[in-house]
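W.,

You were right to be curious about this one. When I first looked at the sequence I had no strong expectations either way, so I just let the prediction run and decided to look at it fresh. Below is the sequence, 443 residues in total, followed by the output.
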Amino acid sequence: MKQILIIDDNTINQACAQSALGDVYQVIGAITASQGMQYLQHLTPDLLLLDLNMPLMNGYEMMRRVRADARTAGIPIVFLSYEKDAVTEARCLELGAVDFIPKPFVASILKSRIAKIFQNIEAKNQLSSELNAIKDRSQRDPLTGLFNRNYANSAVDEKLRNGSVGALFMIDMDNFKAINDNYGHDAGDRTLQMFADTLRSYAEENDVTCRIGGDEFVMFVDGVTDKMQLADRAASIIADLSQKIEECKFETNSSVSVGIAIVGSDGHTFNDLYNAADKALYYVKMNGKNSFHFFSEESAVEESRKSVMLDLHGFHEAMLRSDHEKSSVYSPGFQGITNVYQFLCRQAEPAGRLILLNLQPEEGAEDGQEKAAEILEAVLKRCLPRTAMQARYSTKQFLIHTQDLGDEEAVALVGQIGAEYGNDAGGNRINLFYETITLSALR
């Protein structure tokens, strides 16, 4: 039952209102504004009927005090008055009253007016609720329920304008496309939803978490700029998500990478932080994935380089030093080898050969697939020349790119790989097969 508080120093008006409205609403009466204010300290009525002319405190002052209190500011107010002139009524409505009812009022008319007021209030609330729902949907990603980029952009920028500090995480799933390709888009969608749910569990109350698109997510960590704390959270997110991806049993070598930009040193707007975090994420992608990186660390390295100017010989030596004396084959990951492959194929006469190795288990030997893949990976590091690249696509397939090899040389190389794999694998019953072709033959 809706509750109405009537404040009127005329007891006859009080009795009339009670008689007219009491069978539909709970009506509470107060004969002074002070008494009415006392009631409002412990109850919030659905409607306030307020006499305009009362001793000590008139209706205008009473309304000002009600509106000044956040707890009561939203209570609809109807003015009651013997003053029937248009100027008084207009003033009351301009102050925010929902209606103006002249006295003495007729019971049936009062009841009808109050019912109409409640109908209008309910219609307004319903419309407001629907508009808020539409607005909320426009701000959210329909698949995951997280905020979208437009909302994140405006929300983070507003925080920054108000003096907030923090850091922006750009979080990306490595090799997500392989999940869609190998297991279907339903599996991909479920993975993205799992990704979103996990990020929610790491978000604090004032953080902003959104899905940018595809498998790319952003989290604004509000109030934290300490690198140790940020590193702990990034590492926890990566470990948790990687564990859940592993539990899905995807044979796609999927993992999680995070780029981090800090407010102040890396930018002062969402776009600045986004671009910085994106560059930090790219660094992770190009250096093994499944990790996190701070943009500021890369910026510090770049800043230190400004004091040194190298010639071509200097760059040659610097790049050789950055190899850290690697003695094994280059393993850039599938995305890395894809980038190189695309570059090679854009050449007029693409050079090189592709070798595809397939691990196929005999019936009942599927449990040894992961171990077989690890054995083959170790064999490739020993057997492949340093001019080759290899990438594990899944536990069943490995891709190799070599410099130009003749057919006989390729067969000999694969024979050596097969022999060492057979020796290391023992009787694991997971067999190795291969295909090979030159890049020029694919044109």
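Here's what jumped out at me. Residues 223 and 425 are 52 Å apart (CA to CA). And, maybe more interesting for your project: The chain has three domains: 3-135, 149-305, 333-442.

Coffee later to discuss?

I.
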